[in-house]
Q: What sequence folds into this?
C-alpha cells in the first residue's frame, strides 16, 4: 500500500467501522466480512474476489497500530484537498508523479463518494458493492473504407470489435473448473509489496501473484490462469453523409459497453474514401471539370453535366467564358452533415483538338486571320517588368 492508496481508500468504510473503533471491533467486523466474501464461498462471483482483497487490505493496515497511525496521519495531512487523478497536491507537487502513478482510474468509489448502504448491499441485500460501481466503457478506434458515393450519402456499416473480457471458461477467476483461487500468502491478498524508503512507503505489484492478490493452484486451461479473455461484438453504426477522406468521426456510445450500468464508450472511426473518377470534393461542395470546345466557350452553349446520384443538369456556359472558370450549380452537391445539400462547382476546361481535318483547319486559319489584330499577351512583358 502506497501513500496514494492511503489517500484514495477509506479503510474504515471498507470495514464498516468508525474512525475511533477499537482493535476488537475492527477484528470482529473484518472476520464477518472476510467470511462472507471469501472467494471459496463465492465461486463464480468475480466481485467477491475484489471485495475480499479490499477487506484484507483494510484490515492489514487498521489492525497494525503503527500502520493505522501512519494511515490516519496521511489522511488528516492531505485531508479533503487531495483529488485522485494526478492533481496538484499541497506544496505544489503532483502526487501522481511522486508515487509513479500518473493516472488514477478511481471511479465513483473515490474518498467520500460511497455510501455505507452500497458497501453492505452485497452482504445483506444480495448486490455486491462492485455491482453498484458503474464504470464507463472504453473508447474504441477502428477504420473503414468508403466509396465516394457512400461518403457523400452516408452509409450503415457493421464493425467487429474485439475487447478484453473475463475468460468465459473460468469467469475470470483463472482457476480450473471446480477449484477456486486462494489468497496470496506473500501479500496477504493485497496484491502489493511494500518497500519502506525513509518515510515513504513505495508499493509494487506482488511478485508472487502479480498484483492479483490471489494465487491459482490449478490454472484454467482456456486462459492459462490469467482469467483474461476476449469478446467479439458486431455493431451497426451509421456513418453520416458528408465525411471526408482521413476524417476521424466519433460515434457516441458505440464503443465498449460500460460495466454495471455505466455508459458505453465511444467508437472512433477513421474513414478512407476512395477517389471518384469524375467528382471531387472541396468542403461541402462537389467539384467536376467539364471539357468544352473553343466555340462553346467563345459563343456560349448549354452543356449537360452529370450529377452524383441524380439526373444530369444543363449548365449554361455564357459567351466568352475563359478556360478554368468555375460555375456554381446550387443544390447539386453532396449532402452536408446537417442534411442540407451543398453546391456543385463546374470548372470549364477548353479542349484543344489534336488532329484537325481539312475543313476545320481551313476554318481555323480564317479565324486566325480575322482576329490577327487581337493580342492576348498585350502588355504582358511590360507588366513582367513592373511597369
Ligand atoms: Zn479461464
Ligand atoms: Zn501476492
A:
Amino acid at each position: 500500500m502506497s501513500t496514494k492508496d492511503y489517500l484514495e481508500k477509506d479503510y474504515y468504510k471498507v470495514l464498516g467501522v468508525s474512525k475511533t473503533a477499537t482493535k476488537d471491533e475492527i477484528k470482529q467486523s473484518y472476520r464477518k466480512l472476510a467470511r462472507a466474501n471469501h472467494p471459496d464461498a463465492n465461486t463464480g462471483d468475480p466481485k467477491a474476489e475484489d471485495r475480499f482483497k479490499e477487506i484484507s487490505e483494510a484490515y492489514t493496515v487498521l489492525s497494525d497500530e503503527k500502520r493505522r497511525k501512519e494511515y490516519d496521519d496521511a489522511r488528516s495531512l492531505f485531508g479533503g484537498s487531495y483529488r485522485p487523478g494526478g492533481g496538484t497536491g499541497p506544496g505544489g507537487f503532483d502526487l501522481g508523479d511522486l508515487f509513479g502513478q500518473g493516472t488514477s482510474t478511481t471511479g465513483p468509489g473515490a474518498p467520500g463518494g460511497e455510501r455505507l448502504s452500497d458497501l453492505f448491499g452485497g452482504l445483506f441485500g444480495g448486490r455486491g458493492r462492485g455491482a453498484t460501481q458503474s464504470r464507463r466503457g472504453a473508447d474504441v478506434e477502428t477504420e473503414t473504407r468508403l466509396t465516394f458515393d457512400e461518403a457523400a450519402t452516408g452509409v450503415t456499416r457493421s464493425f467487429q470489435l474485439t475487447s478484453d473480457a473475463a475468460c468465459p471458461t473460468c469467469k475470470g477467476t483463472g482457476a480450473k473448473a471446480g477449484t477456486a483461487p486462494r489468497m496470496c500468502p506473500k501479500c496477504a491478498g493485497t496484491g502489493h509489496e511494500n518497500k519502506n524508503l525513509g518515510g515513504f512507503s513505495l508499493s509494487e505489484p506482488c511478485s508472487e501473484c502479480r498484483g492479483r492478490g490471489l494465487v491459482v493452484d490449478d490454472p484454467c486451461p482456456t486462459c492459462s490462469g490469467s482469467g483474461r479473455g476476449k469478446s467479439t461484438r458486431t455493431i451497426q453504426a451509421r456513418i453520416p453523409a458528408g465525411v471526408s477522406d482521413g476524417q476521424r468521426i466519433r460515434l457516441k456510445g458505440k464503443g465498449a459497453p460500460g460495466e454495471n450500468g455505466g455508459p458505453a464508450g465511444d467508437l472512433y472511426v477513421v474513414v478512407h474514401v476512395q477517389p471518384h473518377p469524375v467528382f471531387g470534393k472541396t468542403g461541402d461542395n462537389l467539384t467536376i471539370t467539364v471539357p468544352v470546345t473553343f466555340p462553346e466557350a467563345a459563343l456560349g452553349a448549354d452543356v449537360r453535366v452529370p450529377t452524383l446520384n441524380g439526373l444530369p443538369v444543363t449548365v449554361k456556359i455564357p459567351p466568352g467564358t475563359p478556360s478554368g472558370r468555375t460555375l456554381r450549380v446550387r443544390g447539386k452537391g453532396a449532402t452536408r452533415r446537417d442534411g442540407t445539400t451543398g453546391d456543385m462547382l463546374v470548372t470549364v476546361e477548353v479542349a484543344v483538338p489534336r488532329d484537325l481535318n481539312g475543313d476545320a483547319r481551313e476554318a481555323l486559319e480564317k479565324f486566325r486571320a480575322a482576329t490577327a489584330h487581337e493580342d492576348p499577351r498585350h502588355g504582358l512583358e511590360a507588366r513582367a517588368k513592373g511597369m
Q: What stands out?
A: Residues 40 and 180 are 6 Å apart (CA to CA). Residues 280-370 form a domain with the HSP40/DNAj peptide-binding domain fold (CATH 2.60.260.20). The chain has a mean pLDDT of 79. The chain has three domains: 3-119, 140-273, 280-370.
